[in-house]
Write a structure and sequence with these properties.
- The protein has 256 residues and is of the alpha/beta class.
- The chain has one domain: Metallo-beta-lactamase, Chain A (4-Layer Sandwich), CATH 3.60.15.10.
- It is built from eight helices and 14 strands.
- The strands form two sheets. It has a seven-stranded mixed β-sheet with strand order 6-5-4-3-2-1-14.
- Strand 9 and strand 10 form a beta hairpin.
- Helix 7 runs parallel beside helix 8.
- It starts with a strand and ends with a strand.
Amino acid sequence: MQITILGKSPSWADTGGACSGYLVETAGTKLLVDCGSGVFGKLRERIDYAEIDAIVISHFHGDHCLDLMPYAYALTYSPRWSAANPAPRPRLIVPAGGKDLLRQIASLFGPGDTIVEAFEVSEYEPEHAAQAGDFELRFCPVPHFIPTFAISATAAGEKGRFTFGADCGPNQELIDFAQGSDILLIESTLRAGDDAEPRGHLTAAEAGAHGRAAKVGQLVLTHISDELDQAVSVAEASEAFGGEVTLASEGAVFQC
């Protein structure tokens, strides 16, 4: 399993960057985890968007889903598609109630069915796994400001397990859910001291502590602004993790 960082910014993009988006691949399946602002263009720099088999969304904040709109426009209006060569309809796997939210998003820009007609949309419940090509996806509710789900991916014939913690405040649920993952991609939005309630995000030290408690093989920090001193964040996370921690960077590739 290969994971490529397309975007790792928080709710505002880094200089020249993109918000949350991660390309997860096996030999047979290409999965996009989140499709936040700027991610569609970053995806196109690496592969043909028509090659994506499925997209899974952790939650409906704009930095995790808004580029579904240009993606849907491309599948609907690109001159490369015709009756003889119709656009593919990638699977779009969203939290329960997501179809209605997708219609609300699209209606801000034009026809409300733009997204749901461009993709093959299905909704997930956290207690049920979803299948996307080679991938089995599992979900775990995590504390954030709206319903949000960590996502774990394993693949048929592959030994690795990849877990994306989504956006979350400190919680035992993610630790239990990510237990033993080969890679945990975890948010580290806050600086030490920026932990006033209500909590929807982690500090770098908290991210490291979560990774250590979950006994993960590799801890990768994401959802962190380039306006923070990222070297300090990595050092704080590494101390709490008890080992080396990697900072996500656009274009970085990880093997799981």
